[in-house]
Design brief:
This protein is α/β, with parallel strands linked by helices and 164 residues long. It has two domains: 1-37; 39-157, HUPs (Rossmann fold), CATH 3.40.50.620. Helix content is 45%, strand content 19%. The chain contains six helices and five strands; from the N terminus they run ααβαβαβαβαβ. The protein has helices at residues 3-24, 28-36, 52-65, 86-95, 108-118, 142-149, and strands spanning 40-46, 68-75, 99-105, 122-127, 155-157. A five-stranded parallel beta sheet has the order 3-2-1-4-5, sandwiched between helices. It is globular.
Amino acid sequence: MGPNKIKKMMKRVENVLTAASLAEEGEASAAQSLMRESRRVLLALKSGLIDAKTLKYALNTAKRIKASLDILLVGSSGNVSDDALKPFLAELGAAGISYQLIHRTGCLKQQIIEYTNREKEVLFAVIESPSHLDADCIAGDKQLAELWRSLSCPLVVVMDGARA
């Protein structure tokens, strides 16, 4: 077991003990908030290809399972804009869902793999369409394909690329 895994495990134990102490002192909402921080859902989006149904699914799921939302916004080099997300971020705040917005460039599939390998608390990743995954990726990258097959969390596809 590597030093990073040990640190993360110690952090989880510390959070559980702190939450238990808060709950014993009658601070149930603070305890729940602390425990919610360790439950995370990854919403992976391709900049310029953001669908309202995918955002709504992520919001409702995070609310239902009491998880925070990690929003991974990936664009082509130098083109990562979150303007389309501003109303959604306001809606998350109004719903009391904690979130973090992560800007990256390049291949969406590669960024999902890297993020979920680094952040072990992610319960599952939500994407809109499998067709967005390979945009800006190197065609025929066997290492990427192999890593994708061993993705460290479940993948939820909200809708296929077919649009009316």
